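Deviations from the work plan: none for this task. Representative record:
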Amino acid sequence: MTIKLLAIALAMLAVPHGAVAQEASCARERAAMIEAIRAHAQQDKTALPQGISEDVLKVMAAIERHRFIPDGNCAVGYADRPVSIGHRSTISQPFIVALMTHLAEVAPDHTVLEIGTGSGYQAAILGRLAKQVCTVELVAPLAVGAMKVLGDLGYDNARVRVGDGYQGWPECGPFDSIIVTAAIGHVPSPLIDQLKVGGRLVMPLGPPGNVQYLTVIEKTGPGETKGRIVMLVRFVPFVRPKN
Ligand code: SAH
């Protein structure tokens, strides 16, 4: 009887121990991802003379990216590469996520909008940096998956909506910054309308299916904008639903 109880106790200990070891390995992979982002930023001194903001890196070092990908594998989750999440959608490479977040210049009192929720990973980062994040996804199963993971991980300042992000989310704005994570050849005017003066829109501008210009558009006054190109990127298409 005693031996049987001991065996059960040992079996119970074995499970959490395995899980703890895996979490430790994921933490190492995550730390390596942050170093890879730093190294990548170093190579791009023209686009990033000051490197990526430490606040952004700190938040990315704490968020479990592997929880946002289909099989939760840490070797895949923390490589500096995009990851496919189904429905022809991908989470961008960590360096690009870090760069776009950096360019959005998010502060703790900000309300921010993301177009293209995908897995919810970019929204999670914005959720840790801003007061409120609103994110719109065209593909319902992706939006539902993102809502679940963001809810499970306790992001109660993230609102997810299914819809065409071209229209933005007026009821959630106006926004201090907007990040678009799908490629489109022009700037959707509703997004500029919903941006505060002094706010920034960060987006891949250019034809889908090829490379685009990662662009920062600053709203300098009512009806006035100023744009700058940061680098070439490759994003999945911004889809316009047919009415
Ligand atoms: N930011 C995401 C990755 C997004 S990939 C992440 O962190 O995981 C781009 C996403 O944009 C895809 O999920 C795609 O379905 C979505 N998308 C494409 N066109 C859209 C539109 N018109 N409105 C909202 N989302 C759109």
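The mean pLDDT is 93.
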